[in-house]
Amino acid sequence: MTPVEKPVTEGRREFSSAEMGALAHLWRGEVYRSTIWRTRLDTTTNWAVVTLGIALSIAFASREASPLPLVLVGILILFFLMLEARRYRYFNVWRARCRWLETHFYAPMLQDGNLRLGEGWQKELAEDYWVPRYHVSFRVSVGRRIRRNYLWILLIQTAAYIGKLIVHPSPVENFEMFVDRAAIGPVPGLVVLAMGAVYVVAWAGWALQSWLHDRRRWGSTQRPTGMG
């Protein structure tokens, strides 16, 4: 009978053929789950792009059309961002497990047939199955999604809003006219523009903070010995 495990040097162990087959099926299952959640990430991004497109169509439908839809769509975009950040935390669980198996099991086997890269990787993966947990915080996940997609969406929204104020209903002649057009009801235009600037700077700063966090954690290139 084939032994379940064989002791090897330095406290490591080998896998039997049955265990290697089980790990292969486990990896395939994790790839499938990460693919499903990746599709869900793309779905929320598509929703944000579509709603922004609708707001652009309404705002630029005529010279007299109000730029207000470009302001209100920001609320929906932020809602989609929060939803996508939550989905990203789930996706990252499956993605991290796939990468863990690839870097500690498949890569050494492909390189020289030696399953001995890193200490304690099997225990680390087993503990992640015993006690499932998120590998990144909600704050980090929001920052990563802003960096990947939403910063560009927010910048397009901002550029469209400024462009609408500049060209419609007629080209602006001075800065005072530009500020007056930004007014929304009783809210002065200068206040609206200041809130818009804070809106953009805040999300850009969040993206930068997330990038610095990942740089501190992983360095210039992501290491194969960490999950998340």
Task: Report on the architecture of this protein.
The chain has 228 residues and is mostly helical. The chain has one domain (12-218). It contains six helices and two strands, in the order ββαααααα. It has helices at 17-59, 68-112, 121-130, 138-167, 175-181, 189-218; strands at 5-7, 13-15. A two-stranded antiparallel sheet has the order 1-2. A hairpin with a 5-residue loop joins strand 1 (5-7) and strand 2 (13-15). Helix 1 packs antiparallel against helix 2 (68-112), helix 1 runs parallel beside helix 4 (138-167) and helix 4 (138-167) runs antiparallel to helix 6. The protein is elongated. Mean pLDDT is 81; it is low at 1-11.
| Unreliably modeled segments | 1-11
Q: What count of structural domains?
A: 1
> How does the overall form come out from the CA principal axes?
elongated
Taking all Cα atoms into account, the compactness measure Rg is 25 Å
The succession of helices and strands, N to C, reads EEHHHHHH
Average pLDDT metric: 81
Largest sheet: 2 strands, antiparallel
Give the number of helices: 6
Helix content: over 70%
Strand content: under 5%
Q: Strand arrangement, largest sheet?
A: 1-2
**How many strands appear in the DSSP assignment?**
2
Distance between the termini: 39 Å
Helical/strand content category: mainly alpha
Transmembrane segments: 44-62, 68-85, 149-167, 187-208
InterPro entries: UCP01500
Protein name: Putative membrane protein
Organism: Limimaricola soesokkakensis
Task: Compose a concise summary of this entry.
The chain is an all-alpha fold.
